[in-house]
UniProtKB/TrEMBL annotation, chain A:
PROSITE patterns: ABC_TRANSPORTER_2. It comes from Mesorhizobium dulcispinae. The keyword Metal-binding does not apply. Residues 9-248, 260-486 form the ABC transporter domain. CDD domains: ABC_Carb_Monos_I. Keywords: ATP-binding, Nucleotide-binding, Repeat, Sugar transport, Transport. This is Sugar ABC transporter ATP-binding protein. InterPro entries: AAA+_ATPase, ABC_carbohydrate_import_ATPase, ABC_transporter-like_ATP-bd, P-loop_NTPase. It comes from the Bacteria.
UniProtKB/TrEMBL annotation, chain B:
It is found in: Cell membrane. It is a multi-pass membrane protein. This is ABC transporter permease. Keywords: Cell membrane, Membrane, Transmembrane, Transmembrane helix. Pfam families: BPD_transp_2. It comes from Mesorhizobium dulcispinae. It comes from the Bacteria. Coiled coil: none annotated.
């Protein structure tokens, strides 16, 4: 068992489910000393859940965890910190009301007593200087006042500060998502130095190049399982993409060429930060894709179009009723207290009325119609929305939008973390509804979904940088445009 | 424990059970004497709490932080306005009621204006507004010693077969309010906003309009309540609404409406209103002092909310 | 930048108005008179600030101040040991409320609303009619007349300094404020949120108790309703002082300044301005609205 001793952390058969959703399905995972492990997979593949487990913030429902060869029966955050395992979470973990030095203090119980402020300030300042020379952050700055990029820099630097607790393994979950290319490079170079000095690191990133260049070993996850694990130099971009997406990724055939007549204009919109004349144009019956890296202004434009539908807005023209299908179900879509039927009906209340009152029959009728049409798997549409699995919750949101009077449907990356079966059903439905004249604006982070679109706008830094027609649509083209020059 | 849990699943049932228990305990104590009179008295007094309670319920259902602290000042001012407009003359009753309604609605509208324009939490907005309304009331009501018109005083105290007419009318109103909450676009929108204001906006709910309507409605109910109180107690005064700040919030909470927003019910407001009045009657009957009465009321509120538990954080 | 100075600016504005309307008020004697009730208001505001730092609200602080006042004017004078035990016990109740609110995930507004009845009832039980008398030592402290600087100002400086040090400069103060800023992050860093909530509520109880004692030291006798106005005053003071309801953004110095502003604006200024007493409450409301409006304007410009 020499191998086990050299491991910093090892998970065997880790399992986790949230309600009906199986987030982790028997995962084996380990990190050796002095090793940088790259972890890749689509959104919802289970990477974050796995990392929460390593960091001690989530308890596995099944399986075992061992640190440096010792089984940990009651593993927790405190225990993880004690053992030198730290995590930089994807959602920012700074207290916005505290200064940079004070935020350092919260992670170090031993930073107390006389002079702790000075010590904390020196500690974080030195680490920032080491990782990001010329960072321009003061230890007295209030975290909430910093730009998101600088907050991420503080957070990363904080994870590498050293007081009493040891430091063996740092988990970096999308550490470069808010950094520009220059600072991202500084960070990755530091990670290499850290690993060379004997530290370990888990690097999660959607930027495959980062992982390929900096990891020693790469683990690929899909649908809550590890589907590939090998030395980094055994992978290239194509093999990674294939492993992440699976064989069903290429279903261009299913989306056979539809003949789209140029119908009347439905939406014309220019992003707020667009400087040249490029604008998004959508016509009746079209499916328009919005692509590019996550968070580059696609959602902002969808929200602006949504707002413009009810209140006139400069630079945006909308000619028909609009509905939106949220991607972040919990914060943007679901009404937690309500039944499935009520969640569908909310967008169509005016049509469900009989006189002044909402008719329960009509509401049930609408729900039953969509239950059949979109295949929501439940014994009773009057059950609470949370009795459904994630994919079926998402179908409910689709039913809400498609069951409404909206002629324009905005989709804000709605397939995040949804199983492939559901996806295929929804793709068919979207094409069917488009054929009937509905217009779809579809933001997605999953490139293969763009195959369903008639043409695709690629976004970068809040602007449209390319408009790709159906025939010129390839993953390389999109990646090229989204990285532009700066990548 | 299991039966307790099922009771708690229909929160309004719980408040009625409480009212019934308290009533039974009092009747047992008096040996059956005054059982009917007690119900009559309870109905007469509960009406005033129920009317403002319904308004407060809609406001609280809008979500965390939404509450109307200006109700007492509103009730005080509206009662003075109503009495002044009526001027002791039966022919002006309807005009006076409308004036009280308009006063209250205007206060509610101003509350929302402050919340919206200054983007301050409703607690502070309605609190600042209530300071100003109080002053207006003190200044306006100074030297005002106007009694309600005899017809109005009689109407607010009118009973048929031992049932106060005002209570019957309030039942009609609450049935309407319950329909508005569960079966009208307005109520559905309030519930949606209370659960998740962003999701409500994205689902096409007119968030600003609904919030404005809700604060205005709550203000209007406070106004009408002020006029009725002045009729029932035969005179308006500045402090007439004071107890309705805590009472309006208490009936909403005891009635099973979630302070986290998005979940409300109207029957519970009635149950809780009756419960509070009957509790008071019971403690008075037992000869308990005012101090003990307050302590028990407070402990019951804390007890109810602890038993009902907080909302589970939805991830 | 300007935003942080706003509390001090509003206090300065009120002072300038007073000086302009009645220059004689700006004197040792004048301040003693005008700031008569500033100390208990400042202490109650600080008490409220602690719960607000943890994203909670205490609607019972006013009746709690009244309850402490009644204990102070009776037991604390007649049987000091019992008095002290009762006061410590009531602080313990606050700590327990903090635990209850955290463990059962209860809305603090409702729990403290219920407690406001409880404190009021207990106060009436202890002192059914206005009366009692403050302990002599307390009277002596509150009528202290230091050289040059009026006592209320000295006391305000002291309160602000002590709480500022405790909450803003100590290492555990960081954790307390952090629990209001990003509770999930603190839990992930291994801190107990139960403990922070208990500590914050206990501190509210402690400063509420100090407020009640100071109040009785000034008024010399008690009344069960004596503190009722303090709930709303304390919330307004925290907000005037630049605090926010959520996010752990509070400032002890700002809260004390806010309390002083309210205390000053409450009566002397308005009397000087020949505002009839009827409109003095309105002036308080108007000051709140004006300051908040100014804050919105300023933060919009700073965006």
């Amino acid at each position: 068992m020499l191998q086990a001793i050299a491991d910093i952390v090892r998970l065997d058969g880790a399992e986790k489910h949230f309600g009906a959703v199986r987030a982790l399905n028997g995962v084996d995972f380990h990190v050796g000393a002095g090793e940088c492990v790259g972890l890749v997979g689509h959104n919802g593949a289970g990477k974050s859940t796995l990392m929460h487990m390593v960091a001690g913030t989530l308890r596995p429902d099944g399986g075992q965890i061992a640190v440096r060869g010792n089984q940990e029966a009651s593993y927790s955050v405190a225990r993880a910190l004690e053992l030198g395992i730290r995590c930089v979470f994807q959602e920012l973990s700074l207290c916005p009301n505290l200064s940079v030095a004070e935020n350092t203090r919260t992670n170090h119980p031993s930073l107390a007593g006389l002079g702790w402020r000075r010590k904390a300030a020196d500690l974080i300042q030195a680490k920032l200087d080491e990782i990001f020379p010329d960072h321009g952050i003061s230890a007295d700055d209030i975290a909430g006042d910093l730009s998101i990029g600088r907050r991420q820099m503080v957070e990363v630097a904080r994870a590498f500060t050293l007081t009493r607790e040891p430091l063996h393994l740092v988990i970096l979950d999308e550490p470069t998502s808010s950094l520009d290319a220059h600072t991202a490079g500084q960070l990755l170079a530091f990670v290499r130095r850290f690993v060379a000095a004997g530290g370990s690191c888990i690097l999660i990133s959607h930027v495959l190049g980062e992982v390929l260049q900096n990891a020693d070993r790469i683990v690929v996850m899909r649908d809550g399982k590890v589907v590939a694990a090998d030395a980094a130099n055994a992978f290239d971009r194509d093999r990674l993409v294939a492993a992440m997406g699976g064989a069903e990724a290429h279903q261009k055939a299913a989306a056979e060429i539809r003949k789209v007549e140029a119908g009347p204009l439905r939406v014309r919109a220019r992003p707020a930060r667009q400087q040249d004349g490029k604008e998004l144009v959508a016509r009746t019956g079209e499916i328009i894709g919005l692509a590019g890296l996550a968070g580059h202004g696609q959602t902002d434009l969808l929200l602006a179009i949504f707002a413009a539908a009810s209140r006139a807005k400069a630079g945006i023209e909308v000619t028909a009723p609009v509905a939106l299908v949220a991607g972040d179900r919990q914060s943007d879509g679901i009404f937690a207290q309500w039944s499935i039927a009520q969640n569908i009906g909310i967008r169509s209340l005016a049509r469900l009325r009989n006189g002044l009152l909402i008719s329960p029959q009509r509401e049930a009728g609408l729900a039953e119609f969509w239950k059949k049409k979109i295949g929501i798997r439940t014994p009773d549409m009057n059950n609470n929305i949370f009795s459904l699995s994630g994919g079926n919750q998402q179908k409910t949101l689709f039913a809400r939008a498609l069951g409404s009077d909206a002629e324009i449907v905005l989709m804000d990356d709605p397939m995040r973390g949804v199983d492939i079966g559901t996806k295929l059903e929804v793709y068919d439905l979207v094409r069917e509804e488009a054929a009937r004249g509905r217009t779809f604006l579809w933001y997605t982070t999953e490139t293969e979904e763009l195959n369903n679109c008639d043409h695709v706008y690629v976004f970068k830094n809040g602007r449209i940088v390319a408009n790709l027609g159906r025939d010129e649509l390839t993953e390389e083209k999109i990646i090229q445009s989204s990285f532009g020059d700066a990548a | 424990m299991a039966s307790l849990r099922t009771l708690l699943e229909k929160p309004w049932l719980w408040s009625f059970v409480g009212a019934l228990v308290v009533w039974a305990a009092t009747v047992a104590f008096t040996g059956g004497y005054g059982a009917g009179g007690m119900v009559t008295a309870a109905l007469s007094l509960a009406v005033f709490t129920v009317i403002v309670g319904v308004g407060q319920m809609f406001v609280i259902t809008l979500g965390p932080g939404n509450v109307d602290l200006s109700l007492p000042a509103n009730i005080g001012l509206a009662s003075a306005v109503a009495m002044k407009v009526m001027g002791g003359s039966d022919s002006m009753i309807v005009v006076g009621l409308l004036a009280a309604l308009a006063t209250g609605a205007a206060i509610g509208a101003i509350n929302y204006l402050l919340i919206w324009a200054l983007r301050i939490p409703p607690i502070i907005a309605t609190l600042s507004a209530s300071f100003i309304i109080q002053s207006v009331d003190i200044s306006y009501g100074r030297g005002l010693q106007i009694k309600p018109p005899p017809g109005f005083a009689d109407f607010t105290n009118w009973q048929i077969l031992g049932i106060p007419v005002l209570a019957m009318l309030t039942v009609v109103f609450t049935v309407w309010a319950a329909l508005a909450l569960q079966r009208m676009i307005y109520g559905r929108s309030v519930l949606a906003i209370g659960q998740n204001i962003r999701a409500a906006w994205l689902a096409g709910v007119k968030v600003g309009r609904i919030r404005f309507l809700t604060y205005t409605l709550c203000g209007a109910l406070g106004g009408i309540d002020g006029a009725l109180l002045a009729g029932y107690f035969r005179g308006a005064n500045v402090d007439i609404g004071n107890e309705y700040l805590l009472a309006s919030i208490a009936v909403v909470v005891i009635g099973g409406t979630s302070v986290a927003g998005g979940k409300a019910n109207v029957p519970g407001v009635w149950g809780a209103g009756l419960f509070l009045v009957l509790l008071l009657t019971m403690l008075n009957t037992f000869g308990v002092s005012a101090g003990v009465r307050l302590v028990l009321t407070g402990l019951i509120i804390v007890g109810v909310i602890t038993a009902a538990g907080g909302e589970k954080a939805v991830r | 930048m300007l935003r942080g100075l706003l509390p001090a600016l509003s206090l300065a504005l009120v002072l300038i108005a007073i000086a302009w309307l009645n220059p004689r008020a700006i004197s040792y004697f004048g301040f003693n008179l005008m700031l008569n009730l500033a100390i208990p208001i400042a202490l109650a505001t600080i008490a409220q600030m602690f719960v607000i730092a943890g994203n909670e609200l205490d609607l019972s602080i006013g009746t709690f101040v009244g309850f402490v006042g009644c204990v102070t004017a009776t037991w604390l004078r007649d049987a000091p040991l019992i008095g002290i035990a009762v006061l410590l016990g009531s602080i313990g109740v606050y700590a327990l409320l903090g635990a209850l609110i955290h463990l059962r995930n209860l809305p603090s507004i409702v729990v403290t609303l219920g407690m406001s009845f409880v404190w009021q009832g207990l106060a009436i039980l202890i002192l059914p009619k206005p009366g009692g008398k403050a302990p002599d030592w307390l009277l002596a402290i509150m009528s202290f007349k230091p050289l040059y600087i009026p006592f209320p100002i000295l006391a305000a400086l002291l309160i602000a300094a002590v709480v500022h040090f405790g909450l803003m400069r100590t290492s555990y103060g960081v954790i307390l404020r952090g629990s209001g800023g990003n509770a999930a992050a603190l839990r992930r860093a291994g801190w107990s949120l139960l403990r922070t909530k208990i500590v914050l509520f206990a501190l509210t109880g402690l400063f509420g108790a100090l407020s009640g004692m100071a109040l009785i030291g000034i008024t010399t006798s008690a009344d069960a309703n004596i503190g009722n106005g303090y709930t709303l005053l304390s919330i307004a003071g925290v907000i005037l002082g630049g605090g926010e309801f959520v996010g752990g953004r509070v400032s002890p110095i700002g809260a004390v300044i806010g309390a002083l502003t309210l205390a000053l604006a409450a009566s002397p200024l308005l009397t000087f301005m020949h505002i009839p007493p009827d409109w003095q409450v309105a002036a308080n409301g108007a000051i709140l609205i004006i300051v908040l409006a100014a804050r919105v304007l300023i933060s919009r410009r700073e965006r």
